[in-house]
Amino acid sequence: QDVLRAQTALPTQHTLSQSFIKHFVDIINEEDGAVRVNLLGGPEVNPQDRAVGALERGLLDILWIPAAFTTGSIPEAQAMMLQNIGIDEIRDSGAFEHFAGIFREKANAHFLAWSETSAGYYLYLTTEPAIGDDGVVDLTGLSIRSTGAYRPIIEELNAAPVAIPAGDVPQGLDRGVIDGFGWPTVGLESIGLQDSVNYRVEPAFYNLANVVMVNQDRWNRLSDEAREQLTRVALSYEQASMQEMDEMGEADLAAGDAAGVQAIRMEGEAASQYLSRAFDAMWDNVRTNVGDDITAELRELIYRTD
Amino acid sequence: MLALIGRLYIGLINALAVLAAILIAISIGLVIANVASRALGYGSFQATIAVTEYILLYFTLFSAPYLLNTRGHVMVDMAVKQLTGTPRKILESFIYLIGIAVSLIFLVVSIDIMRSAIARGHFDERSIDLPYWLLYAGFPVAFGLLAIEFARYLLTSRSLYDQTDYNEGL
Amino acid sequence: MFFEWYIALSLLVGLVVFQMMLGVPVAIAFMATNLICAYLFMGDTFAFYQVVDNSTSLITRFQLAPVPFFILMGSLFFYSGIAQRVFSTLDVLLGRIPGRLCFLTVGGGSLFSTLTGSSMANTAMLGSMMVPEMERRGYHWRMSLGPILGTGGLAMIIPPSTLGVLLATIAGLDVGRFLIAGILPGVVLALLYTAVIWGQVWWNPANAPQYEIEKVSTAEKFRAFMINIVPMGFVVFMVVGLILLGVATPTESAAFGVLSILVLMVAFRAFTYHAVQQALLSTVKIGGMVFFIILNSSIFSQLLAYSGASSGMLRFATSFDVSTVVVLLIMFVALICLGMFMDPVSMILITTPIFFPLATQLGINPLWFGLFVLICLEMSQTTPPFGLLLYVMLGVAPKGTTLRRVAIAAAPYLGCDAALIVLMYVFPSLVLYLPSLL
Ligand code: NA
Ligand code: NA
């Protein structure tokens, strides 16, 4: 039996890491087949931004990581959150294979799973936003905490991006240093911030893109049975993680409602305006990092405008 | 000639320490300016956090050779102080050799990490994106000087454990 | 290569401790241990790359910025002479109380604690200022050395605390809340110290002989208070007030602490380039020393995790059915023992990755536990044979002072620290009330 050393880039207790542990690590280990996964831990093993390097060097065999954390070495991965065709079409259309080629080339990694794709992101605010002429929220005058994933949309909606460390967010909200932040549609309750915000901007934008990678050299050395087992469980994990995200997203909404968080809901034309502005802002960002040609190629692969 | 090189060398170590102090002063100014700008409604400078974070790193690297030269790194000198003569010489040499070895490993590896990061165009994603090699640009200087300092302790009559100055601490 | 968790743990901790005992500089001991163990665990020279690559991760966190800022702030306070000015004013205000120099030490020490983040600086300054004065006045050495060792450590608990920022960052605690959690326990500790002094004077008045001092009118006292003590509120406002007003985050407010001392220096006409230069130099000395250790020891805790040593230890420790009190007691003893030969920064770096997950597992509030660790650290720096504060005191105390005397004088104050831990255990809100308001 091959034992694979694994790490999650988010803390193991994190909602999203838990989805990976429950639907991938635990399943593999319960099967007691050709491989076993030894989960070493979360970012205490290698810091988030050094984990890809550890996988590439073969100090880790398996890494679970949000694609956005890998863009320092794999800039194309930033586009993964912009897919809106769903995992089934990604698998069928060859988009998955395309990204697999990128991961192999740039991170010496075998791309195993693209997971939690049914969750997206919300903007959470403490103050009620204005609505522009086109029916889209206008955040002029608001300060929003920004990190890489949210900066384009925050700027697109005329808010002032504020860079403060994650640890300062709760007090930043309570004391008015920031008026809001972006967060996935799952996991707000687990960080206990639902009491600090008053509004949730709907619909959700982008899609979570977490990836499971295996060190390419290790992958090549595995037996056929081991590779078959990992691939099979990875496919079912992709599906199971979507259902998990849907259920947790609903639980999160309920927790938000219970804490008095109101929805600012855009519908119809306004909603599609909002989404296309959000996606285009991020595509522009991708373009500055990987250039026109690659952006066009990726956009063609994973993004549909109707 | 040797005396001139010696003076230039000590001058370099001291200049780096001064630079470390200046960097801290700059980061304080940056943080204050950023908060003031935000409070007055002019928005924040995205670069503040990333630049301050890099300053913390360079502050550490630039002060390290000065601290080794002035015996400012914290250590327990009980064992060394108990010994005299040859046993003490052996123990001290052993310690200096450890220092030289680890500094050289850091020196060589950091250059290789930089080389590969430049070749592959990696960047460090923070409040602003910075080229990844910038994280390691200070390593060769800092660890090179540390290796030289340890070698000087090893080869000359100076000892790291002679007159330990009053050690300030937390 | 695969190692059982206890072998990995012994290798890592053993190698660091062994080298430290030999006299290898702490940072270098960590570097060598990391390189050796990483190579053993990963079985490839790629391990060296990961060690070097990971070293720049923790050190480049914005949350660590307050450490050099607070050191600079405290140093400016001392080198500008404002510290002495505050002290002599307190001296005037106290008047003719028995044992007044001891109370002055505790009062002044507590005030300094709110303005500086360094217990060593505090101990050194109070020791060089107060001990000769008390000797001259015929105070017993118990009375002259003890209170200073006690209050020197207060600086660790009362915000701003450099060590507190460090501990919070490494343990992943909210820095702002953690700093504020130290206020009430710090005040209680200062009160306990006061009670001990009062008891010692009451028990044997000859411990602190009375002497005549110049009479100062109440109006004079009021004037001195307004001019020299009240402006210190400005510093507290800049550090704590800006957070509460929502102008600055806890991380950012440290920079305003430095700014406020600079403003006071100008206002008091105490601004000299020499003072600024000296203060910057000690920032390089203390901050550079601490950060160089952090650069190297952050990897140490990653290796503990990578090798399975932390999780194995955790499973082992929780496999026994012992109560929380017993676990806390074991940690207490471990910290005191480590402190006998280790500096507080290394102790934080070695124990945090092992102790904090264990505390979390047992359902202990992390803020509470952080403060518990901080008090243990303070105590460990005052216990013989190698407690650093004892040596600082020996360094500044008059000739003829022995380590034995310093240690005996410190004992009752260590008792206060222990009493505070018990009080915190019985009344957790002592720690948790103030942060809950944030
Ligand atoms: Na020598
Ligand atoms: Na303090």
Textual characterization of the structure:
The complex is a heterotrimer of chains A (306), B (170) and C (438). Chain A is of the alpha/beta class and 306 residues long. Chain A has helices spanning 15-31, 51-56, 87-93, 95-107, 151-156, 169-174, 216-221, 224-258, 268-302, and strands at residues 2-8, 35-41, 62-66, 109-115, 121-125, 130-131, 137-138, 143-145, 160-162, 180-184, 199-205, 210-215, 262-265. Chain A is 43% helix and 21% strand. Chain A is globular and about 60 Å long. With 170 residues, chain B is mainly alpha-helical. Chain B has one domain (2-155). Chain B has five helices and two strands, in the order H-H-H-H-E-E-H. In chain B, a hairpin with a 3-residue loop joins strand 1 and strand 2 (129-131). The mean pLDDT of chain B is 90. Chain C has one domain. Helices cover 79% and strands 0% of the residues of chain C. Chain C contains 22 helices and no strands. Chains in contact: A-B, A-C, B-C. The interface between A and C is medium-sized, with 24 and 35 residues. The site of one sodium ion has 5 residues of chain B, from loops. Chain C: GO terms for molecular function: transmembrane transporter activity. Chain C: The chain crosses the membrane at residues 5-22, 64-83, 103-127, 148-172, 178-203, 224-248, 254-272, 284-304, 316-338, 345-364. Chain C: This is TRAP transporter large permease protein. Chain C: It is found in: Cell inner membrane.
When the domains of chain B are counted, the total is: 1
What spatial form of chain B do the alpha-carbon principal axes imply?
elongated
Q: Approximately what portion of the residues of chain C adopt beta-strand conformation?
A: under 5%
The chain-level structural class of chain B is mainly alpha
Short description:
Chain A is of the alpha/beta class and 306 residues long.
Task: Describe the structure using short key phrases.
heterotrimer; B: 170 residues; mainly alpha; two-stranded antiparallel sheet; 5 helices; 70% helix; 4% strand; C: 438 residues; 22 helices; 79% helix; binds sodium ion; cell membrane (chain B); transmembrane helix (chain B)
List the helices and strands and how they pair.
The complex is a heterotrimer of chains A (306), B (170) and C (438).
Chain A: E1 2-8, H1 15-31, E2 35-41, H2 51-56, E3 62-66, H3 87-93, H4 95-107, E4 109-115, E5 121-125, E6 130-131, E7 137-138, E8 143-145, H5 151-156, E9 160-162, H6 169-174, E10 180-184, E11 199-205, E12 210-215, H7 216-221, H8 224-258, E13 262-265, H9 268-302
Parallel strand pairs in A: 1-2, 1-3, 8-9, 8-10, 11-13
Antiparallel strand pairs in A: 3-12, 4-12, 5-10, 5-11, 6-7
Helix pairs in contact in A: 1-8
Chain B: H1 2-39, H2 47-69, H3 78-82, H4 85-120, E1 123-125, E2 129-131, H5 139-155
Chain C: H1 5-22, H2 26-42, H3 46-59, H4 66-79, H5 82-94, H6 100-115, H7 119-136, H8 141-157, H9 162-171, H10 175-181, H11 183-203, H12 218-229, H13 232-244, H14 250-267, H15 273-306, H16 309-319, H17 324-339, H18 344-361, H19 366-380, H20 388-396, H21 403-426, H22 429-437
Helix pairs in contact in C: 1-2, 1-16, 2-3, 2-15, 3-15, 4-9, 4-14, 4-15, 5-6, 5-12, 6-7, 6-8, 6-11, 7-8, 7-20, 8-11, 8-19, 8-21, 9-18, 10-22, 11-21, 13-14, 15-18, 16-18, 17-18, 17-19, 18-19, 19-21
Bound molecules: sodium ion (2 copies).
